[in-house]
Amino acid sequence: YGKNTIKFLRLHREGKKHFVKEVEVCTHLRLTSAQEYLDGDNSLVIPTDTMKNIVLVLAKKNGIPTLEQFAIDICKHFMTSFCQVAYVKTYVQEVPWQRLHENGVPHIHGFICVPDGIRFCEAEQCRNGPLVVFAGIKDLKLMKTTQSGFTGFYKDEHTTLPERHDRILCGELFCKWSYGECRDFDFDSIWNKIRECILEAFSGPPDCGEYSPSYQKTVNCIQMLILSKVSQVQVIEVILNNTFYNVVDMKNLGLTNDKEVLVPVEAPYGSCACTLARKKFLEA
């Protein structure tokens, strides 16, 4: 059981310069006994309102140096403060506020919400077990307008999809990775590096791009690049929900539409998912 959707803004001031972290937190516990379920005995139950207050107090006392560290702080508090807690899991996601810049000068207290992917993390721990940390990015919308196709696929009597050698590749990406046991990582730096890997693998070199034969291959390229460049990542999951665009037929309007006007296909949509892990992690 637990408390979901604990939303708050943490404001940090350094003189005139302000820093903000707006987050949503979900914290769940499993107790050493199920007596509240079986017998209606609530003597070990930590009220969810108390859980909410603990999250807010930790934000006040410790701040939010990184999302991952804040999730770790929450897990450690419940494990060290309540002997009846057998398991704790905390999820934290961030509202994407970015500092405003005016003529290249960063504003001291002005921010803009930029929906270019939502950062999140999870931390979980069983009593007498390791504290494990996950992190990720979701709702990251990506598009490239060429260097993508889909040909040579299996065909039978139900196949109506034509082969395409040049199409728009567009999708909403979810990426989640595991660090394994908690260590003293530079979580901000790693998250930014992984985001750069995602963009690089999806789009290819800036002057020419890179051909994608399928959404599946693009997903794998993203994962392989991250595993090759970020040694701290042990397991990585990527889901790419596809958005298709159809070229509008303008012949009846007396026009030739050379893939200049397209309409998105809202539903149904395709989805590709894959999870990769380092061999040494699987062996462990």
UniProtKB/TrEMBL annotation:
InterPro entries with a match to the protein in the record: Uricase
Family: Belongs to the uricase family.
Role this protein plays: Catalyzes the oxidation of uric acid to 5-hydroxyisourate, which is further processed to form (S)-allantoin.
Location within or outside the cell: Peroxisome
Main localisation: other
Residues binding O2: T48, N242
Gene: Uox
Native species: Cochlearius cochlearius (Boat-billed heron)
GO cellular component, one term: peroxisome
GO biological process, any: purine nucleobase catabolic process
GO terms assigned for molecular function: urate oxidase activity
EC number in record: 1.7.3.3
Keywords: Oxidoreductase, Peroxisome, Purine metabolism
Catalytic activity, reaction form: urate + O2 + H2O = 5-hydroxyisourate + H2O2
NCBIfam families, A to Z: urate_oxi
Residues that hold urate according to the record: T48, D49, F150, R167, Q216, N242
Record pathway: Purine metabolism; urate degradation; (S)-allantoin from urate: step 1/3
Residues binding 5-hydroxyisourate, per UniProt: T48, D49, F150, R167, Q216, N242
Name of the protein: Uricase
Domain of life of the native organism: Eukaryota
Broad EC category: oxidoreductase
